[in-house]
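Checklist before submission:
- one chain only
- standard amino acids only
- sequence pasted in full

Submission:
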Amino acid sequence: MSGNLLLLGAAHVHLPDHLRVAESEGWRVAAIHDRDPDRRAHMAGQLDARALRDLPEAADWDAAIVCSETAFHEEDIGHALDLGLPVFSEKPLAGGAGAATRLAERAERGGARLVTNYFLRTNRAVAALGDALGAGRLGAVLEARFRFAHDGGLADWLDVTGWMSDPALACHGGFADEGVHMLDLALEMLGPLSPVALVQGHALGLDVDDHGTALLRTRAAAPVTIEAGWTDAEMRLEIDVVGTLGHAALDRSGLILRGRDGSETGCRADPLDAGAGFRTFLRGGSLGTPRQAAAVSAVIDALEGR
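Returned file contents:
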């Protein structure tokens, strides 16, 4: 399947990944709306797309992709839903739990397709860990640790001096920017989580935090830590789960499951690719429900005391 895309916002760092995937899947951006006139004109010229100063009143496209600043997600996603378009949005779904819940409810009421880019769900090692936990291979979970962080803030390959560090536009900082991925997986694998505490760091001197660690509890009171941000020594994806029957260790190379009986199994991980989520969307797949994406925002809000 191929078609024409309406691009709502070109602010997000992963937009080039999505454009690469769109081209490989036979899709093209036919029109772009962005509140920044210079960015709008630049992207329209680069993509040979129609530049829209205002949100369009009619749908001439087959799907919408939202890469605007987080503060505009509710308006942009809501507008695309009103146009009757399937919508793919960068994470988080919205700037807060209230907005995210409203969007999820709108999508449900209209039977609309709304997908948030929690692309780590597509990774075979992550999926294998979820399957193992679902099958009870580790027994009752005693504790878990989730880490997703990179060196973008210190290595300077990620521009965190623009909208991403403006609280009015980003709504969150470095912890939430990467931590939402881990919260999405933790909620999917472990069930509901109760926030306990959040410690955030400000190593870069920005108006938002740049990294942090959260402590949460499962329904059975097992401790769960979420570590995330922009100030690591390298790109790291790590998940460790300890259960009554065994232990799971996942990193960028793959997953190892070790039973307390001495057994060991595992699988390799896929390379990290933010565009994998958009490919899943274009092929009709799921990255969780809008309600699940809203649940991530609710936990972030609770941790940050909103």
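Reviewer check: The mean pLDDT is 97.
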